[in-house]
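task queued by scheduler; priority normal; single chain, no ligands, no partner chains; default sampling; output format set to structure tokens
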Amino acid sequence: MNPLQIILYFFFKKLAFIFSYVPRKASCFFGRFLGWLAFHFLRERKNITIDNLKKAFPEKDYKWCCSTAKKIFENYGLNLMKFLRFASNPLSCRLETHGMERLSGSSPKIMLGCHLGNW
């Protein structure tokens, strides 16, 4: 790993630690705010996103493309905060399991799970 990667690793590790103590609603708000900032200050990325939306949805007008691009950036910020909270507070800390003893034995089993966000 090069020095920049090491610095970024520790930076995000500390950021994850900090956001693990921030209430979920506050971190979600902050994540959306980061996305909003990125939308307004990363103009090249914003323009690429809008152009891609225009190509993917030629029937939609420019206003719709801008609005959707803004929501995409806000969603990226929200996902960043969720990832940072997840990285410092594993899912196993927030799950309750019941009946795990029934999984032992040789008979076939069916397990059900749910999809959580992007992971």
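post-processing summary
- The CA atoms of residues 35 and 74 lie 4 Å apart.
- The two ends are 26 Å apart (CA to CA).
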